[in-house]
From TrEMBL, chain A:
The keyword Acetylation does not apply. Signal peptide: none annotated. The chain crosses the membrane at residues 12-37, 75-95, 107-129, 135-156, 185-206, 236-259. This is Spermidine/putrescine transport system permease protein. Keywords: Cell membrane, Membrane, Transmembrane, Transmembrane helix, Transport. It comes from Actinacidiphila paucisporea. It comes from the Bacteria. Pfam families: BPD_transp_1 (PF00528).
Automatic annotation (TrEMBL), chain B:
Residues 13-241 form the ABC transporter domain. It comes from Actinacidiphila paucisporea. One of its GO terms (cellular component) is ATP-binding cassette (ABC) transporter complex. Keywords: ATP-binding, Cell membrane, Membrane, Nucleotide-binding, Translocase, Transport. One of its GO terms (molecular function) is ATP hydrolysis activity. Coiled coil: none annotated. Signal peptide: none annotated. CDD domains: ABC_PotA_N. Pfam families: ABC_tran, TOBE_2. This is Spermidine/putrescine transport system ATP-binding protein. The keyword Protein biosynthesis does not apply. The lineage of its organism: Bacteria, Bacillati, Actinomycetota, Actinomycetes, Kitasatosporales.
Length: 268, 401
């Protein structure tokens, strides 16, 4: 006979493992959340002093922080748009057409993902320097678009490759011109891949530090600001921004799941 | 054997010298074919025989290497698929997964700028008995329902010709039978010309008015199902369409309307009208007879066989009871594996494997074929079909963009 605790364990081991893994992932975020309500004693927000909502009431109370945050958001939006448009077109070209240099392109597209960021950042910086391009917003944007591109191409290409070419033929057979076929059939079917690529791009661009620091000149993005301030003492507001971003991301995912679930559920 | 391409107003489709080659491989040899308006026409053949390629050329999804396609008397060879008055029911249906049944069916109407589609879509869904399914997504439907959506989506556009590419291939046997009758009913109801591509000879014979049997990129024979079955013009057609017993025989002479043959010492009679091949005394010919035309008696009862019937001795090798009939395999001096289907009316208990028997049949049921061809042509066609992927799949990627 098995003892009762053993039986309980056998039944719940998957749940237990899941909870532990989730805890491992979420605990750091909870710490960030908790310390956004701290009023630190010195300059460093590493030990709990006492509860305060000061930082939440004045999120932009630290000099330059909100400026760098807006810059990072702008960069992320532009880089996402650029990389998604370019990457989607590249993915279609790679998935659909046979042309000279296709294999080489396929391989090169992977490089930014495989190469150490330091190497890429440094070589890109050297390139800009040699071309006498002034570092700043545009150099960062070019750098971000470049490394986001690979992720969009990979995500969209996987989706396009798995699409049944007969669907587009069926659309043409049903009087859809090539443009209508693309808009009505191809694009909606590729949309999940494009959305995944875009989300990835936004996240990657927003929190990139290494490549950015090689190509920023005097411009300071949000990750650079956090890194810089961490050496002098992190303001509590950094935790506030971090928590806010986390909450927004979680809400977006939950909303997405709910919409998707309702769509599936409504018709069964 | 093909029909002469003549420009008649009643022709829904006319193919003239239509061919398709991929590199050095010829998928379809120059083909002349006329499909009368309002008919149910089947292109029957094994995988890779060029039937799907032919269909895709009619739809405009494949560019012909030579020749032309005319629909309703108008040359459409140069038109893209979306400008041709044909619609296709694809193999595996190709329903748009992100659109519901209603929008799938309305797709063609909307693309042609028709605003009020509600009435038409409703009527069409009723015709295919899917009235309550309008808001379902394709993946929520069973195979048979998806198939009906595919038919509705194509038919609603009232095409001049409806093309069906192995539309029942993905369904199980019972559902396939049901859909065969359903499609036939719909065709009769709407009166549109159907061109049906299939590798299933029973399906082709059940549904079509005219069947074109294709083999290796050519039309072997064309005609009404019963005509093809009773008078196959080649060993391929004889073997591919149902089962045939082909006996190699020597011509000994002609008398009246009959050709006298001898095979392994047995004298057989073949009506001259049913022999497509040139015969000369001393020459060889293949005498064919369908298994269900043959009667089987035990050798002890040989005297009871009426005079004037073709008779062949043999020994039962195998028998299988399949309910409606019993199928025997007979080893005979004229042919090592003769097949005989005997309806289960009165079963003779002596007819078991090993028993000596005599086969006999009415000479009028014998058909003659040229002995110069491969006697086994078309025999393994169905087995090949199962092993290979459907033809046309390899070219799909090229045509995708």
């Amino acid at each position: 006979m098995q003892t009762r605790p053993m039986r309980w364990l056998r039944k719940n081991v998957v749940v237990l493992a899941g909870v532990l893994a989730l805890g491992y992932l979420i605990l750091p975020n909870l710490v960030v959340l908790a310390f956004s309500f701290n009023k630190p004693k010195g300059r460093f927000n590493y030990t709990w002093n006492h509860f305060s909502t000061d930082a939440w009431q004045h999120p932009c109370g630290v000099a330059d922080m909100c400026g760098s945050l807006t810059l990072s958001l702008r960069l992320a939006v532009y880089a996402t748009i650029g990389a998604t448009v370019l990457g989607t077109m590249t993915a279609f070209a790679l998935a659909r057409y046979r042309f000279r240099g296709r294999a080489a392109t396929n391989m090169l597209i992977f490089l930014p993902m495989a190469m150490p960021e330091v190497v890429m950042g440094a070589s890109l910086g050297t390139l800009f320097l040699n071309m006498r391009i002034r570092f700043g917003f545009w150099t960062i944007l070019i750098a971000h678009t470049m490394f986001c591109l690979s992720f969009v191409v990979v995500a969209v290409k996987a989706r396009v490759m798995s699409m049944d070419p007969r669907l587009e033929q069926a659309a043409q057979d049903l009087y859809a011109t090539p443009a209508q076929t693309f808009l009505r059939i191809t694009l909606p079917l590729a949309a999940p891949g494009i959305a995944a690529g875009a989300l990835l791009s936004f996240a990657l661009s927003f929190d990139d530090y290494i490549i950015t620091s090689f190509n920023a000149g005097n411009t300071v993005t949000f990750p650079m600001f956090v890194w810089g301030s961490a050496q002098r003492g992190t303001p509590v507001q950094v935790n506030v921004i971090g928590t806010a971003m986390f909450v927004v991301a979680v809400l977006l995912v939950v909303a997405g799941q709910l919409v998707g679930g309702r769509r599936r559920g409504a018709r069964t | 054997m093909t029909t002469e391409p003549t420009a008649a107003p009643g022709d829904a489709v006319r193919l003239s010298a239509l061919s398709k080659t991929y590199g050095s491989f010829t998928a379809v040899h120059p083909l002349d074919l006329t499909v009368p308006a309002g008919s149910f026409f089947a292109l029957l053949g094994a995988s890779g025989c060029g039937k799907t390629t032919t269909l895709r050329m009619i739809a405009g999804l494949e560019d012909p290497t030579t020749g032309s396609v005319a629909l309703g008397g108008k040359d459409v060879t140069a038109l893209p698929p979306y400008k041709r008055p044909v619609n296709t029911v694809f193999q595996n249906y190709a329903l748009f997964p992100h659109l519901d049944v209603y929008e799938n069916v309305a797709f063609g109407l909307r693309r042609r700028g028709i605003k009020s589609v509600k009435q038409q879509v409703g009527d069409m869904l009723d015709l295919v008995q899917l009235g309550g399914m309008a808001r379902r997504k394709p993946h929520q439907l069973s195979g048979g329902q998806q198939q009906r959506v595919a038919v509705a989506r194509a038919l609603i556009n009232k095409p001049e010709v409806l093309l069906l590419d192995e539309p029942l291939g993905a369904l199980d046997l019972k559902l396939r039978r049901q859909m065969q009758l359903e499609l036939k009913r719909i065709q009769t109801e709407v009166g549109i010309t159907f061109i049906h591509v299939t590798h299933d000879q029973e399906e082709a014979m059940t549904m079509a008015d005219t069947v074109a049997v294709m083999n290796a990129g050519r039309v072997e024979q064309l005609g009404a199902p019963a005509d093809l079955y009773e008078n196959p013009g080649s060993t391929f057609v004889a073997n591919f369409l149902g089962t045939s017993n082909l006996i190699e025989a020597e011509v000994t002479g002609t008398s009246g309307g009959d050709i006298q043959l001898v095979a392994a010492g047995q004298r057989l009679t073949l009506p001259a009208a049913r022999c497509g091949a040139e015969v000369t005394t001393g020459g060889r010919v293949l005498a064919g007879v369908r298994p269900e035309k043959i009667a089987l008696v035990h050798r002890d009862d040989e005297d009871a066989i009426a005079e004037g019937r073709n008779r062949v001795p043999g020994r039962i090798v195998d028998s299988s009871f399949i309910g409606v009939s019993t199928q025997y395999v007979i080893d005979s001096p004229v042919c090592p594996e003769l097949e005989v289907f005997v309806p289960n009316v009165e079963r003779d208990g002596r007819l078991v494997p090993g028993a000596p028997v005599v086969l006999h049949w009415n000479p009028a049921h014998t058909f003659g074929l040229d002995a110069a061809q491969d006697i086994d042509a078309g025999l393994d066609a169905d087995a090949v079909e199962a092993a290979l992927s459907p033809d046309g799949a390899g070219t799909a990627a090229e045509a995708a963009v």
